[in-house]
Specification:
Elements lengths: L1 E6 L4 H4 L2 H10 L2 E6 L7 H10 L3 E5 L13 H8 L4 E10 L8 H17 L3 E6 L2 H10 L7 E3 L6 H9 L3 E4 L9 H9 L5 E3 L21 H12 L3 H15 L8
Parallel strand pairs: 1-2, 2-3, 3-4, 4-5, 5-6, 6-7, 7-8
Helix pairs in contact: 4-5, 5-6, 9-10
Length: 258
Amino acid sequence: MFVDSHCHLDFPDLAGREDAILATMAANDVGCALCISVKLEDFPRVRALAERHPHLWASVGVHPDNADCDEPDVARLVALADHPRVVAIGETGLDYHWHKDAPEWQRERFRVHIRAARETAKPLVIHTRSAADDTLRLMREEGAGEAGGVMHCFTESWAVAEAALELGFYISFSGIVSFRSAKDLKEVAKRVPLERLLIETDSPYLAPVPHRGKTNEPGWVVHVAEEIARLRELPLATVEQASTDNFFRLFRHAKRPS
């Protein structure tokens, strides 16, 4: 069984295709998926997906790109995370690609999420883009390693991966690792310890080869695993088993299906 550790099934491109998406997951032996929150206003939709389907789980958080939205505080995140289907805090982090002024509100929001993760003992789902140094600095300052978590859709250097690993974090690879142009990322995928590696789609974005350019979906996470297996010269079953075991080890509030 494969697990998609990061998807957005409530987004418009996927929300109207729930039955078909779940069928594709089943056809490709993708047994579970984590549905990620990006706004508090939309969190009820994400939670509802996890409540409807025993093989889906939810996170709660506000994406660093979202400026015009409800601003979370620690108490609210802790309260919303107090639900059996909510297994993570995030998506959170820093993004200086779209916010080139490196805004202080982004850093403060990230701190709030880390504090909530520590209080709930639920792991963080971290997004970082063009902000690796500040992301790692805040993780250290706020004790993010106490909660643990994952650097999702990883596209940074080996040095950044190594620093995150030292903090106890997992590294998750998306369909980008299958792109021909992602030569540096492929090298990182070869080096991340197998026991700290996750796979994801970040659907509806970043569809892996051979579906590149299409609307992504969780059933295609198998192609991410295939590329990692190819790069590491391992049987696909080895990557499947390791990434699935890692998911349930990290997201310990998610119960593995029998």
